[in-house]
Structures are given as structure tokens and as C-alpha cells.
Write a structure and sequence with these properties.
Elements lengths: L3 E6 L6 H6 L2 E4 L2 E4 L2 E4 L6 H8 L8 E3 L3 H13 L4 E6 L7 H11 L4 E6 L5 H15 L4 H11 L3 E6 L4 H5 L5 H10 L4 E5 L2 E6 L4 H12 L4 E8 L5 H11 L9 E5 L5 H4 L4 E7 L2
Parallel strand pairs: 1-2, 1-6, 6-7, 11-12
Antiparallel strand pairs: 3-4, 3-5, 8-9, 8-13, 9-10, 11-13
Helix pairs in contact: 3-4, 5-6, 9-10
Amino acid sequence: MGRVAIVTDSASDLPPEAAAASAITVVPLAVSFGAESFKAGVDLTTEEFWRRMTAPEAPFPTTAASAPGDFKAAYDECFAAGADAIVSIHVAGTLSGTIKSAAIARDMLADREIHVVDSHSASMGEGLLAQLGAEMARLGVSGAEIARILTARSADLDLFVALDTLEYLKKGGRISGAQAAIGTILSVKPIITIRDGLVHTADRPRTRGKARERVLELLTARPLERLAILYTPPADGESFRAEALDRASGGLDPARVSIQPVGPSVGPHLGPGCVGGVVLYAR
């Protein structure tokens, strides 16, 4: 492990292989189906989550923030592996209590250098920042400087996802029943974004095809530095990635366009059949 270790949480939707390749530690959130509780990405894979999520008469899954003890254990392991500092990047504090748990764990290790960064985003919004932090750590950038840069770059993030329905956001408590009802009455396929750490509706196309087209427009409206395509089964993320690459200005390197299904920590709020992405705009 390098001098600066990078930590995030499972709401980042970083695939295990991508996290391992970048030496990023992922602390799991809890996911429950009725009386059964799991640690996202540890004893509940993304594939198993969606199988359960879409099973007939399955209980609606709920999520819970990681406990401070989980973060302390992760931080202790990083220091034991040779890290001198940790930069810990997390889902927006306005959407989850996870970052509060990370801050409590940091305070438990007051004699250690730990920087907690609010991504002001979710899913690969925090995932892209974690990967950027890992790249800087490999170059020998200090923990304090990585945290400063990531905090500044969080303003360059944008997320757009076309939903099949607002019902899952309502069930998860991320929007009001009135907001969900409006979407149902108008029979729209809403496109959501995150502004100031809160979920907002960016547009309300009437069909899936128009929603997909609009998301592509929104994602590629400005020059991009990185792009992460997100989807929830049964949506076709691969074809969406290809279209986004074709539209991206400035000849975006395909290696900087990842694709991953939304995992157990964010999936309950979106539901099946969604497609979209997270962009880090070029400066």
C-alpha cells in the first residue's frame, strides 16, 4: 500500500475488480430484504441483489449507513498495511449518514492523518473521485492535497439517470409522495440528477426512447474528462456506452469510459430498467 490510502463506501458502485486494481478500500453499507441483512459487495453481490430485487413478491430492500466501527476497522487495516495517511471519499452527507460514521471513526484515531471528503454525489460520482484520488496517491501527492483537490473537483461532477418510475425513490425516502405522484399522473420517464447533494428531476420525457436520448445529450453537453455509464438490469448499458462515446466531444479515450451496473447500496432507490451515467467535466 502506498503512503496515502484511499477509502470509499459501497454506494460508490465501484466494481470489486476496479477497486482492487486501484487499491481502493470499500466499506460496505448494509442492505436488508425483510429480516435478512447483508453487507453490500461482501455477502451480497450485485447480481444476487438484482435477482432478489426483481423476484415476484420480494420485500422492498432497505439500506443503512456503515457503522463507525466498520470504518475504524478499515482505517486500522490501511495503517497496518503501511499507509501514513488516508483520504476517505463518501456518498453525499445529505443522502446518507455514512459520512458521519466515517468522521466518527476518524475522530477515534485522532493521532492519525485521515481526511474525510464529501463527494456531494452518489454512485460513480464518488467512485470517480476515489479513482482520481488513487491515481494521485500513486504519484506521491500528499493526503491533504488529494483531499483538497477532490473537494474542489466534486463541483465538476454531474449525474443523470433515466428512471422507469419514481416509485423506488419514493419508497427509499429520497423524494416525496407528491413528487412521485406527479410523475405517475403525467406518465413520464423522469431523468434525475443530484444538485447540492439532493435528488432533483432534470427532465420529464414521455417515453423511454426520448429519456435515453435526453440523457445522452445531458451527459455529453460539455467536454468530458471521465465518464461512468450506469445501468440497472434489464437495461442495455453496453449500447448506451457506445452511443455516449460516439457523441463525446474532444475524442474521449474509451479507457476513461467505464460501465457498471448499479449495486445494492443505490439500486433500491432507482429500481430496474434505468440507464444513465456520471461525468467528470474537463477543466
